[in-house]
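Narrative summary of target 7.
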Amino acid sequence: MRLQALLSRDGEATPLQVRWGWVPHWSMGTRPALTHLPLEQVMRSRLYARLRDEGRALIPVEGWYEAARDDTPGARPRLAYVTSRRNEPLFLAAVAQASDEHNGCDGLALVTYDPGNGVTHLLAFDETGAQAWLRAGLDWEQARTLANQGALGADHLEQLFWTKRTFMAGRRRSTAMQPRATSNAI
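Modeled conformation, tokenized:
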């Protein structure tokens, strides 16, 4: 699967088609493609230096699906659609390797961040945060500050839960067509 991503090329955001999942050259053929990478790992490890310096990217989205828990004790995670509370564009932070000549390593992985509460989230930005993410020379301290202060949180995002399917008298009755907003914000 290929995604439309914005990569910083010569100081400008350039749209490129990039394959979902990134394969490091040192693990080609031995491991599956990486689809998510923690911010700290990307910004601090030498293994990701090329991605950190040349491959920071953005994925423009209207929303995304993620597993979310209801506050009910013993409740199983359900699929929730995360979207903006406001009518503004969202951008997911990513790292991508995209060369002029396609090779097996080319691809994209989304960046995740743990704000300290033990729950990892995708790193989502508004337009201002997105521009800062693509800025040349972004180091670990600046990236951490950007994630803490510029990433969109509960005040900007909402989760829409899909109601459960119920089974009655041997017939499947689907109630999954009606989303309901909850107060469980990210």
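The first strand starts at residue 2 and ends at 9.
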